[in-house]
């Protein structure tokens, strides 16, 4: 059950694995930086407005920014919207593509705040990038038509997202690990205590049912949690199996370790404890569709976000166009400088010609 060297060398392990404390520290820092930027942006906007109207800014109240917890609820909302996009797109993308897009969104907001970039501006681009990364291709115009967005809405945030992802697009999902895990459970089924004297047909039915339920948990509820940041794919699929069939999962773990002797008992207990912790995190997720209190709270946070959204980052498309225009102006300026330099060089050479005589091609031969 120990992760192999291949996983430890992956970008997911190196860049996107954290402890609870590390996650909280990073999110708190992201929130602090974003809140400061929001306050400064509103101050600049008010100063500009007051200068135009000859008014002072002292009458304006301080903007109430989002808390770390409120930011996370907004991010979960964005993840849920990506799940909904699966039913809108034709053909419908595989669950792995949707999961990849959700993890891109979650990784993006580890270092960016919804106050700076609203998820509705990021999620369509994150899903578009996931379709390319997981080789499930759409034509851009068709993709935009299904989601009711423009091509600029999709393309403008791409580089911003790539920067936040540290230019690493790989996501290792627990769904694939689950397939291998279920196959291994089937292989050892006859040796598991929970299947003693149970007919083979019933064993297969129970394992298949547990695998199907676990997969549904992994492609939906698990995506809305911090599980990917805190646990390995193997730990996540075991946690999902534990949630849907505890007896089967514990029998499987016991079989793997008990045959190795008592020396590995501490490792076995550590695995069981870790799997339980992961299961509790997944279980804690509550969908707004099924929880009125969560839905009401999300509505309150949404209204608050509209009031504290960074005014200088509201329109990512316009920001991207402005940057592109600046770059073009810079390129035009460089080209103009190069042209002037070539002109001066030609004039210098012409003067040299006057000193040393005409070009050879202009000298007539008799």
Automatic annotation (TrEMBL):
Gene Ontology molecular function terms on file: cyclin-dependent protein serine/threonine kinase regulator activity
Residues covered by the Cyclin-like domain: 80-163
Key words of the record: Cyclin
Basic and acidic residues biased stretches: 324-354
Domain of life: Eukaryota
GO-annotated biological processes: regulation of transcription by RNA polymerase II
Region (Disordered) location: 324-366
Record flagged with keyword Aminoacyl-tRNA synthetase: no
Family affiliation: Belongs to the cyclin family. Cyclin C subfamily.
Summary of the function given for this chain in its UniProt record: Component of the SRB8-11 complex. The SRB8-11 complex is a regulatory module of the Mediator complex which is itself involved in regulation of basal and activated RNA polymerase II-dependent transcription. The SRB8-11 complex may be involved in the transcriptional repression of a subset of genes regulated by Mediator. It may inhibit the association of the Mediator complex with RNA polymerase II to form the holoenzyme complex. The SRB8-11 complex phosphorylates the C-terminal domain (CTD) of the largest subunit of RNA polymerase II.
Record-given protein name: RNA polymerase II holoenzyme cyclin-like subunit
Species of the source: Knufia fluminis
